[in-house]
Amino acid sequence: MEVLHAAIAIVAAIVLIIRFKVDPVISLLVACIYLGLATQQGAQGTVDAITGGFGEIMAEVGLLIGFGVLIGALLHSMGTFRDLVELLARRVGKRLPYAMAAAMSTIFPSIYVDVQVVLAAPMAQESAPAVDRRHGLPWLAGAMGIGIFSGYVFVVPGLAAVSVAGLMDVPLGTYLLYGLPIGLLTALITTFLFRVLLGRGLWKEDSDLDADAALHQEGADAEVEAVPGAERAARLPLVVRLLPILLPLVLIATGAILDVAGTTNPVLTFLGDANIALFLGLLVAVAMIRPSIGGDGVGKVLTAGFHTTGEILLVTGVGGSLGAVIGGSGLESTLADLFSADEGAPVVLSILLAWCIAAVLHFAIGSVSVAAITAAGIIAPVVGSLGVDPVVIALAIASGAMFALHVNSNFFWMFTTLLDLSTKGSLKTLTLATSLGAVVSLPLVLVASLVAAAT
To answer: Can you tell me where the transmembrane regions are (predicted)?
Structure first.
């Protein structure tokens, strides 16, 4: 019965979100309450599971999410990402789609996806004719889509990556070691395959572009205004302005490498902790921009970052609540039997099932992060009984959560507007690219499972 009740709870959450437009936080909490009461956990037990699960995941990822968003807000105010994109456009020319996909999947994950598309869309439109007069814009659009979401789900400090790793109790350094190459390869391979599809007549400019250019102006109004004085900080060399991102990545990766090598160093272990590393990156960003905009200016930028952080933290925390309620429902033993149904290939079955759960949730809900968090909440209580390294299951969830970003996503419409695409054009670029990326990354996760098993 616990399987039936869990299915009812999840379907109810999806229906509330899609059909009745109820906020994901409220919908997931309704699912938690129903599941807790229906599986005999009692009123107090249900409340304890919800609050306990929320607190546990906040202890894991709360600071990380906050620091990542704030770093991104500060760098955005200095024009760091805009200048990086412009530099790539000058240096790589017709290879810009690959450069964009690579940069967004490895460097940009420190900022939220909405900001990334706002920054990159104008550059994509301007440089499209130089890349390919006929297919430049759709190719760049697809590269943007898969680059943004490969980084978002696979690369720390991407918010979905941090959330899934936290829910699955995977150290962020370990997740970064596996996720970074998978995210980069997924972005590059998908960009290549997408270009092949475009060459086979996929793109029809007459129907795939939006004839009403005024819509683009509406999307441009969503850009965050520059903070007065920030232009002085923007004169710093680009590599210096990227230090708030590069420093945490280097520290986290160093700590992870030392851990894998079995070497201990108290100082590097401390600095390599993800919370400390990202906090240091935040301090560097503040120190870099404060002389230009002053304390009030920094406060203004950070306040904007706090607004973005709130909903992300709530959704992530409630994902932890759902996991805790599922953990107390008795579903663990049933799902464990399902995951290991074929003893000849438990790893493959576990990976495929995790991928499918995340893919179906994303297709239905329309949010990569909510799908990943919900899937992780469902699977986390049983991951210890699977005989599979948790990082592999976390990566499988990340892979599936990218599948088919479409019309029930706010990002879809923002992407459509900023790039002057029709709905059909966005389905052919963003939806197809993310679906292709989810499929491309799946065999890479299978390879990662072999590496994890051998270490």
So the answer is: 6-37, 57-78, 98-124, 136-155, 175-198, 238-258, 270-289, 301-327, 347-380, 392-415, 435-454
Name the pTM for this structure.
0.70
Residues 6+ apart with CB under 8 A from 250: none
Domain containing residue 398: 2-454
Dmax (CA) for the chain in angstroms is 64
Contacts of 99 (CB under 8 A, 6+ apart): 88, 91, 92
pLDDT of residue 344: 43
Whether residue 213 has pLDDT greater than 50: no
Candidate ranges 272-281, 357-366, 374-383; pick with highest mean pLDDT = 272-281
| Cα pseudo-dihedral 147, 150, 151, 153, rounded to 10 | 150
Q: Classify residue 148 as left (phi > 0), alpha (psi -120 to 50) or beta.
A: alpha
pLDDT at 211: 63
Are 274 and 259 within 8 A, CB to CB? no
Name the domain count of the chain: 1
Structure tokens at 91: 């240096």
Measured CA to CA in angstroms, residue 13 lies from 22, 197, 221, 328, 359 at distances of 9, 36, 33, 19, 16
Count the alpha carbons within 13 Å of 43 in the hemisphere toward its beta carbon. 0
CA distances from 164 to 87, 199, 268, 371 (A): 32, 36, 25, 10
Lookup result for tokens 């590069």: 246
Residue 52: pLDDT over 90: yes
168 close to 376: Cβ distance less than 8 angstroms: yes
**Mean pLDDT throughout 232-249?**
85
* 358: Cα separation from own chain's centroid: 13
2-18 vs 24-38: helix crossing angle, rounded to 10:
160
Q: What is the per-residue pLDDT for 155?
A: 93
Distance between CA atoms of residues 250 and 243, nearest Å:
10
Q: Say if residues 262 and 202 touch (Cβ distance below 8 Å).
A: no
- The structure tokens listed for 120 are 């990159």
> Which residue type, as a one-letter code, is found at position 336?
A
Distance in angstroms (rounded) separating the CA atoms of residues 198 and 188: 16
- CB neighbourhood size of 199 (10 A): 13
Q: What is the predicted pLDDT for the residue at 345?
A: 46
Burial class (CB in 10 A: 0-12, 13-18, 19+), 413: middle
